[in-house]
């Protein structure tokens, strides 16, 4: 069972504990809840921790050489990196993570896995390829293809999503073909790629968020949209309540994280009459709502997984020599 939080944040004593790891967190803002909690959890366990603003990581390449300078100094001595790459800097963030990988630094979320999770269609393609149940999804680019796409997702009403939207932004419901065409015309004119998706009526305004760490779901909550809203994201006023997931939902969440290739993932699922339907896999899941709903020390589990990952990486590298 996951440990519960003990009141306020504890502070580590002076010095580093035996076997401590140097942890770097890639985050644009050290004051963000999840970043701040990871720092607290790392220090509580005696690890050295540093927050690196991703956009201040300057990369340099040469023949047989790759390195990063952070605010003018060469970055070295890092035991493990925890990427918290925001959607707005995905491109640069992926380049930084890839550079760290080339340098041989253990990175908890690989650049390929982050890229898969950020591309909604790519993620759904992989999940479907490995037999996971997802809402029926279609993508098209011309107005005359819209009726066929609507039919492919089970008819109207249907969901329209931006391919790279986050936190519920760019998610809409269309009830007529005219609404679908109007929305798509506007989004296409703005240069946006979109998905049409099946509406799971029995879960409208409600979904599940499961946090997967390693091979286990360590916490889960049911998110319910506020009155008058169909999107259940907490950032849009939704409410989260802790739940104990049935075994099929736990297994689906863990498998989804493995398919995308993530050690830590937030997996969003819909509760359908047929069982869990995977909506999305998040590579930098926020956990403020989950910690509040469950009372669990999720940040501590996150840090412990990073340290375990680093030790495993070091042992494998030594064995390969």
* CATH architectural designation of the largest domain: 2-Layer Sandwich
Largest sheet strand order: 13-12-11-14-15
Number of helices: 9
CATH fold name of the largest domain, please?
Answer: D-amino Acid Aminotransferase, Chain A, domain 1
| Rg measurement, Å | 21 Å
Q: What is the general shape?
A: globular
CATH class of the largest domain: Alpha Beta
Q: Percentage of helical residues?
A: 25-40%
Number of domains: 3
Mean pLDDT: 91
Structural class: alpha+beta
Notes on the structure:
With 321 residues, this protein is α+β, with helices and mostly antiparallel strands. It has 3 domains: 22-109, Rossmann fold; 117-133 and 202-283, D-amino Acid Aminotransferase, Chain A, domain 1; 137-199, Dna Ligase, domain 1 (2-Layer Sandwich). It is built from 9 helices and 15 strands. It has helices at 33-44, 90-102, 111-118, 120-129, 146-152, 177-189, 247-260, 288-294, 298-320; strands spanning 22-26, 48-52, 57-62, 65-70, 73-74, 80-83, 137-138, 158-162, 171-174, 194-198, 206-213, 216-224, 239-242, 264-272, 275-282. The strands form 4 sheets. It has a 5-stranded antiparallel sheet, with helices on both faces. Helix 1 (33-44) packs across helix 9 and helix 2 runs antiparallel to helix 3 (111-118). It is globular.
Question: Could you give the topology of this structure?
Answer:
Elements: E1 22-26, H1 33-44, E2 48-52, E3 57-62, E4 65-70, E5 73-74, E6 80-83, H2 90-102, H3 111-118, H4 120-129, E7 137-138, H5 146-152, E8 158-162, E9 171-174, H6 177-189, E10 194-198, E11 206-213, E12 216-224, E13 239-242, H7 247-260, E14 264-272, E15 275-282, H8 288-294, H9 298-320
Parallel strand pairs: 1-2, 1-6
Antiparallel strand pairs: 3-4, 4-5, 7-10, 8-9, 8-10, 11-12, 11-14, 12-13, 14-15
């Amino acid at each position: 069972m996951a440990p519960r939080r003990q009141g306020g944040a504890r502070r580590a004593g002076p010095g580093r504990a035996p076997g401590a790891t140097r942890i770097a967190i890639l985050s644009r803002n050290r004051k963000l809840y999840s970043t701040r909690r990871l720092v607290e959890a790392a220090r509580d366990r005696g690890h050295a921790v540093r927050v690196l603003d991703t956009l201040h990581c300057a990369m340099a390449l040469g023949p047989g050489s790759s390195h990063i300078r952070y605010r003018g100094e060469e970055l070295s001595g890092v035991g493990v990196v925890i990427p918290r790459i925001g959607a707005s800097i995905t491109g640069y963030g992926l380049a930084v993570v890839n550079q760290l990988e080339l340098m041989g630094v253990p990175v908890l979320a690989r650049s390929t896995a982050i890229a898969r999770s950020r591309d909604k269609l790519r993620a759904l393609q992989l999940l479907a390829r490995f037999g996971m149940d997802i809402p029926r999804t279609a993508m098209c680019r011309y107005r005359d293809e819209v009726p066929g796409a609507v039919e492919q997702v089970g008819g109207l009403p249907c969901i329209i999503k931006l391919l790279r939207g986050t936190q519920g932004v760019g998610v809409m419901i269309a009830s007529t073909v005219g609404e679908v065409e109007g929305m798509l015309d506007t989004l296409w004119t703005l240069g946006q790629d979109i998905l049409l998706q099946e509406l799971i009526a029995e879960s409208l305004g409600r979904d599940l968020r499961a946090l997967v760490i390693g091979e286990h779901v360590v916490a889960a909550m049911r998110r319910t949209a506020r009155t008058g809203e169909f999107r259940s994201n907490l950032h849009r006023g939704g409410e989260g309540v802790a739940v104990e997931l049935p075994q099929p939902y736990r297994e689906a969440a863990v498998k989804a994280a493995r398919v995308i290739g993530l050690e830590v993932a937030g997996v969003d699922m819909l509760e359908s009459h047929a069982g869990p339907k995977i909506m999305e896999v998040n590579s930098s899941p926020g956990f403020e709502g989950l910690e509040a709903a469950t009372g669990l020390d999720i940040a501590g589990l996150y840090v412990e997984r990073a340290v375990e990952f680093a030790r495993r990486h070091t042992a494998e590298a030594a064995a390969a020599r």
